[in-house]
Amino acid sequence: MPPPGACRNIMAARHKQNGHGTPTNPEKFLNQDFVSLKKFCLINGLRYLDDLFPPDSNSIGQGILKPADLARVEWLRPAVSQIAPNADFVVDGFSRFDFGQGILGNCWFLASIGALTFQKHIFQQVVPLDQTLKEDYCGIFHFRFWRFGRWVDVVIDDKLPTINRSLIFVHSKDPNEFWPALLEKAYAKVCGSYTDMNSGTPSEAMMDFTGGVHMCIQLSDSSADAWGLMCRAGKSNTLMGCGTAQGETPANTILPNGLVQGHAYTVTGVIELLSQGKRVRLVRLWNPWVKIDPVNENSPDFNRMTFEDLCKFYTDVDICGLKPDFIDGKSSDQWKTCVYEGRWVAGTTAGGCINNKDSFWTNPQYRIKVVAENLQTDDEKNILVSLMQKPDKRNRRLVQNLHIGFSIYSYKAHSGKFPASFFGTQLPVARSEKYMNAREVIEFLTLKPGEYLIVPSTFKPNETASFILTIHSKAKTSC
């Protein structure tokens, strides 16, 4: 652990692209090795049973089902039970038309899967398609997710919770197709239980599917160039989702205009066209609740609306991509990405926000230098900063996010750590809009050429937590 206020070289902390915990070489979640476990089962003629996410009530969790219904749950394997007559992993390809939501309140996760199906390369990275319920079947499957800086390979058995031999959570339109239900089970294992998937935002799962660049656009912000970003994202390898406001009535209330309050949707397309001599900007959305008919474009799945209506009825749009190329529509080679994992420790490196004048300087400090390259205007946004806190608990529902944020200071000719006196006389040139008790805080900023100090912190002092600081920079950055 570095001393209080120690300055670190953020460039040196960049992850190695071919190292452990990457998409091509993921870490083994809970130390379970899919290849070894499957080989053991095949040699011994066994069907895999996952003792770390067993088929019992603990894996379902408390609060989803009434005790009487929980007692009726039967965990069945698709390939050797009466769930389906001819079960398989994938039937006739994959698309958002494959699945529907069960009794679990995880529309945010399903909206993210809907977006995932539009990007074949990313989909195959998360869902290995060399899996089947037929040849060499032994009841074991695996999926890959990005989890707080590392890709992990998650192993599950294929026992699924049913009542009266019907799936109670995600189910497929084709009763023989089971990749959606198995993918949901793998994510439930990562979260701790099915219950732990209740409530969330699409950006969380989309980041866990990509591990890349995330931007959240507030549709009320007229200066955010939301339409331009969405159009560029639509032409890139990105996932897009949006959400309606919570409102005063209970979440998931269907409003008179047909939209669901406090609900997650998938953005499936954006287009600008001429109509009666005028340019019209259209957005197409998908609702995970809808029982879709892929042949009928008048079905509720094809919710087309103008961009102006999107801004009126929705609060924000989340975009997640493998690379930053959607930010300005140019080659991603112009963008550099730096990542550093750090930690606030009570009593040493957890100084709280700037209001805590005597301790703020003890927070972790990172220096970057912005060089004037590829900047066309003085106010062009060239730095995307993400501060994400890492959970200290396995179960997602037990994680209590701290209020986090960051400040950026300009400096000249300074070596070593920055003392309290520096922050007593200097004002930040940029900062996160506010401290939020969210998994991630993001700001898209303009930093002119010069040297800068980035200070991530919790709002209150002496709060211990781990974090990931990521900087995507259009201009060249260095120490």
TrEMBL record:
GO biological process: proteolysis
InterPro entries per UniProt: C2_III (IPR033883), Calpain_cysteine_protease (IPR022684), Calpain_domain_III (IPR022682), Calpain_III (IPR022683), Calpain_III_sf (IPR036213), Papain-like_cys_pep_sf (IPR038765), Pept_cys_AS (IPR000169), Peptidase_C2_calpain_cat (IPR001300)
Keyword Hydrolase: yes
Active site: 107, 263, 287
Gene Ontology MF term list: calcium-dependent cysteine-type endopeptidase activity; metal ion binding
Keyword Protease among UniProt keywords: yes
GO cellular component entries: cytoplasm
Record organism: Amphilophus citrinellus (Midas cichlid)
Domain Calpain catalytic: start-end pairs: 47-363
CDD domains: Calpain_III, CysPc
Superkingdom to which the source organism belongs: Eukaryota
Family designation: Belongs to the peptidase C2 family.
Protein name, entry field: Calpain catalytic domain-containing protein
Keyword list, A-Z: Calcium, Hydrolase, Metal-binding, Protease, Repeat, Thiol protease
